């Protein structure tokens, strides 16, 4: 009996100290993406927003006209779907750290500088569309 109570207390303490990760796997926007490297971690380009964009759900990021965006991957367009890129908004207050990464329509930005060519085609995974 005492062992059962001790185990219950231990599990309760662990649940408070180490809360589970919560989130949602959203629908995939594409089955492939273009990246600069096999791990898809290097910046492809720097783009400037030509218009405002309000994110429709947690897979996307909000963008304001004139903001600079680091582009990390470009989803390969499928059928009638839109063409989306993944990136983070550059801000001077966060210049030493990466902002929230999310998708945005590629037709709302113009590339200002290409750092590396996006010539690696990689399958997307469920985690590419995971929302916290």
UniProtKB/TrEMBL annotation:
PROSITE patterns: SH3. InterPro entries: OTOR (IPR042801), Otoraplin_SH3 (IPR035554), SH3-like_dom_sf (IPR036028), SH3_domain (IPR001452). Residues 42-114 form the SH3 domain. GO terms for biological process: cartilage condensation. This is SH3 domain-containing protein. Residues 1-23 form the signal peptide. Pfam families: SH3_2. CDD domains: MIAL. Keywords: SH3 domain, Signal.
